[in-house]
């Protein structure tokens, strides 16, 4: 009966079509465009939403299909943007980046109240900015940079209460920067550089509640000074006012606690350089080509991130012998009287004419590995960062540009960029390779990335679609130091032939889900009474079962292991106070706690995704309770109550081995202590493999899972990924491995396990060997694209192992 009713309903639901007014609007939009590459040739066939028109994405809204995204990024389109785009009443993303559109931005866009992203940068648009865009209360990002747009910035844009990014640089905008823009409560980035703006800088920007980047280089604020009130922009990370015809003194900006980049070069600033110390985040201070006088101040020591001090071509006359900026900082004094007057010995090296030393391109890593050629049927390449040497895979190419980075030298930050980008994209670090980068005028950092699949030669197409959608839709936000980014290209390569058929143009998953839901609604309506009766009956049975299960939780007793109540755990951690948190991992958060008897413990509180059934949890506790060794962290107890599962371990006051190998460690262990730690960790792993009952493979041996007690006795920790080792069968035969899904940490993974999914005791031994290399070299397993095993092997083969 259910099927008989459902099938006709499904036919009706799948017969839904796009709103007719939106179909007409898309037709008009196409007719206003020139499409020499025929990218939009399928816009003449079928329904926009159900026939997967290129770049058209839809959802069901109010029981009808509507276009919600128009993504025509880099399609070699020209012509104009038709006003009929406003008939797409549910549009959220309007993306025509990197085409050749001409004409003006239609004022009718201001009627699309659902718009969140307007992405029109990289075209040849002209005319004035429409006031009506100020009506878009849902707008998050307005990118109209790199066009030929004229006229003033409309004051109405101060009404954009949800906008975070105003990117209007590289146009021909004129007039004043509207003082009203400070009222935008969420505005993070205001980029208006390379225009024809004039008038005084708006003092009211000092009241902007969230502003992080204000970049207004290469405008003409003739006669204007830098408002002293800008020191009140507490959130400001970057202030760049280069070549703006500014006059007067430099205000004291030392109160801006997050300031990391200050460029006031090529102006007419006078007076001394302020002597108060800038924020510790500062990387770049460029005051060159002004009329500053007096003494070079001494306030640049103790700034750990400083990269550049550029004071060239001013009238600075003196410098003291105490001038001592941090090492590796580029200091430029050429063109100042101090270079001819000073008797300070090191001054000569600072007075040579030079330009800012920005590395123009990343050098390829040399490798002595000899690899056989990759297959030639697709664009296979070796992944330089792969834990498996000579592993061939087909990458995706990504062109990315940092539009306003807060650094002068990218090299020290490449590792942090890789870590954050892969984490945001939900990839492993070794899946990203920065092939090359180059600094452009701005300065902006143009880079070409390659994304490699993990543990396989090819991405599946759903992953390709996901990655493109995340990058093109600005669904990730890079750390502040890198500023905003823009996607320049997304090169499919060997995936191009399959991509059009797999991409989610047309119906989104939500829309398809809505169609299916409406199709089966009638079927559920017919069976509702029977379903409710059955569910009620089962619910009563389940309630009895749950009650029994809850009671059984507290009846489990394991010798030597304490069972704690939730209230005891909350009391021990001051109700899981953030200050008590000492770590976080795949299992959950780790807290330092003090039990009622005064014992200090580490409490691992499982997050929701890690919760197990009570029986399985107790089985794991029973297993852990059998493990007793000087070099294993001891289990003190557990809590299994009120949808909470916690493991309580002895507390290790000296943290992890990784903490002590870090370059930021206050005290680095000597060779003798390192040898002591290596031997202890080895004994702990050996116990798990040979003496534990049953034997256990750890599966995630790494420096951060080796803890150190008050006497620096090493103890292996974190068995959250552990698997039981094979045991002899009834005939005494012992399997050599356990087949399992690959788990562990990149850089420590055994290559054989990575490829075959066969876990053996040798997998743990390999990982422990990587830890030993860390202890000997100080390197991380994967850092700046270098794999520690590969680097040590190269040094050994070249005879430079002692280096």
Summarize the structure.
It is an enzyme of class 2 (transferase). With 803 residues, the chain is of the alpha/beta class.
Q: Any overview of this molecule?
A:
- Among the domains are: 381-497, 2-Layer Sandwich (Alpha-Beta Plaits), CATH 3.30.70.150; 562-650, Phosphorylase Kinase, domain 1 (2-Layer Sandwich); 657-798, Transferase(Phosphotransferase), domain 1.
- The protein is built from 15 helices and 44 strands.
- By secondary structure, the protein is α/β, with parallel strands linked by helices.
Low-confidence stretches: 1-15, 501-505, 515-555, 725-735
Euclidean distance between termini CA atoms: 78 Å
State the helical fraction.
10-25%
Q: Tell me which CATH architecture of the domain at 657-798 applies here.
A: Orthogonal Bundle
How large is the radius of gyration?
A: 31 Å
Q: What characterizes the major β-sheet?
A: 14 strands, mixed
Strand content: 15-25%
In the sheet with the most strands, the strands line up as 23-21-19-17-15-14-12-10-8-7-5-3-2-30
Number of strands: 44
CATH topology value of the domain at 657-798:
Transferase(Phosphotransferase), domain 1
Count of separate DSSP helical elements: 15
The secondary structure category is alpha/beta
CATH class of the domain at 657-798: Mainly Alpha
């Amino acid at each position: 009966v259910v099927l008989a009713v459902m099938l006709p309903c499904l036919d009706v639901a799948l017969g839904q079509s796009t709103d007719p007014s939106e179909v007409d609007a898309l037709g008009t939009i196409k007719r206003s465009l020139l499409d020499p590459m025929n990218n939009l040739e399928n816009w003449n066939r079928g329904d926009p939403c159900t026939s997967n028109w290129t770049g058209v994405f839809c959802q069901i809204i109010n029981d009808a299909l509507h276009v919600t995204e128009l993504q025509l990024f880099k399609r070699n389109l020209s012509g104009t943007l038709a006003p009929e785009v406003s008939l797409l009443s549910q549009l959220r993303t309007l993306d025509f980046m990197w085409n050749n559109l001409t004409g003006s931005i239609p004022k009718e866009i201001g009627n699309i109240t659902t718009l969140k992203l307007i992405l029109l940068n990289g075209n040849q648009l002209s005319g004035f900015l429409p006031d009506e865009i100020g009506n878009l209360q849902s707008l998050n990002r307005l990118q109209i940079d790199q066009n030929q747009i004229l006229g003033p910035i409309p004051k109405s844009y101060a009404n954009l209460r949800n906008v975070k990014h105003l990117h209007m640089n590289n146009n021909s905008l004129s007039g004043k920067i509207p003082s009203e823009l400070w009222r935008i409560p969420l505005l993070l980035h205001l980029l208006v550089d390379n225009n024809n703006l004039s008038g005084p800088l708006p003092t009211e920007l000092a009241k902007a509640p969230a502003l992080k980047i204000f970049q207004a280089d290469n405008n003409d604020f003739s006669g204007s000074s830098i408002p002293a009130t800008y020191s009140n922009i507490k959130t400001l990370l970057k202030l760049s006012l280069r070549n703006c015809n500014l006059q007067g003194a430099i205000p004291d900006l030392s109160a801006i606690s997050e300031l990391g980049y200050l460029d006031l070069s090529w102006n007419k600033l006078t007076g001394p350089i302020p002597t108060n110390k800038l924020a510790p985040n500062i990387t770049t201070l460029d005051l060159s080509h002004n009329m500053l006088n007096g003494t070079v101040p001494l306030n640049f020591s103790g700034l750990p991130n400083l990269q550049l001090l550029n004071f060239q071509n001013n009238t600075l006359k003196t410098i003291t012998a105490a001038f001592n900026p941090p090492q590796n900082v580029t200091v430029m004094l050429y063109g100042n009287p101090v270079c001819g007057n000073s008797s300070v010995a090191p001054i000569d090296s600072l007075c040579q004419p030079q330009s800012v030393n920005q590395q123009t391109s990343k050098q390829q890593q040399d490798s002595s590995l000899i690899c056989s050629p990759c297959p030639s049927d697709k664009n296979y390449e070796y992944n330089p960062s792969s834990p498996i040497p000579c592993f061939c895979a087909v990458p995706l190419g990504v062109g990315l540009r940092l539009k306003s980075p807060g650094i002068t030298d990218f090299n020290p930050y490449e590792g942090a960029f890789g870590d954050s980008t892969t984490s945001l994209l939900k990839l492993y670090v070794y899946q990203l390779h920065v092939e090359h980068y180059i600094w452009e005028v701005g300065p902006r950092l143009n880079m070409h990335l390659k994304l490699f699949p993990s543990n396989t030669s090819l991405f599946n197409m759903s992953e390709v679609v996901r990655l493109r959608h995340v990058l093109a839709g600005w669904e990730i936000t890079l750390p502040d130091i890198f500023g905003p980014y823009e996607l320049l290209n997304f090169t499919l390569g060997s995936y191009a032939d399959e991509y059009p058929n797999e991409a989610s143009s047309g119906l989104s998953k939500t829309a398809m889900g809505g169609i299916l839901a409406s199709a089966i609604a009638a079927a559920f309506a017919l069976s509702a009474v029977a379903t409710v009766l059955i569910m009620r009956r089962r619910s009563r049975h389940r309630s009895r079962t749950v009650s029994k299960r809850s009671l059984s939780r507290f009846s489990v007793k394991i010798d030597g292991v304490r069972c704690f109540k939730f209230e005891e755990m909350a009391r021990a951690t001051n109700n899981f106070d953030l200050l008590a948190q000492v770590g976080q991992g795949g299992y959950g958060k780790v807290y330092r706690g003090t039990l009622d008897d005064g014992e200090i413990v580490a409490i691992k509180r499982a997050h929701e995704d890690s919760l197990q059934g009570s029986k399985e949890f107790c089985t794991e506790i029973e297993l852990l309770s059998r493990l007793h060794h000087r070099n294993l962290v001891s289990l003190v107890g557990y809590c299994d109550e009120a949808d909470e599962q916690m493991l309580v371990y002895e507390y290790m006051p000296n943290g992890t081995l990784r903490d002590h190998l870090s370059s930021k460690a206050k005290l680095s262990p000597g060779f003798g202590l390192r040898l002591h730690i290596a031997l202890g960790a080895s004994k702990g792993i050996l116990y798990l493999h040979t003496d534990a009952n049953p034997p256990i493979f750890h599966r995630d041996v790494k420096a951060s899972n080796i803890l150190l007690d008050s006497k620096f006795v090493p103890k292996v920790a974190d068995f959250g990924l552990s698997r039981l080792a094979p045991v002899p069968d009834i005939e005494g035969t012992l399997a050599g491995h356990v087949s399992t899904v690959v788990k562990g940490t990149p850089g420590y993974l055994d290559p054989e396990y990575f490829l075959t999914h066969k876990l053996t005791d040798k997998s743990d031994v390999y990982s422990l060997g990587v830890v030993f290399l860390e202890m000997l070299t100080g390197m991380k397993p994967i850092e700046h694209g270098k794999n520690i095993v590969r680097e040590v092997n190269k040094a050994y083969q070249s005879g430079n192992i002692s280096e």
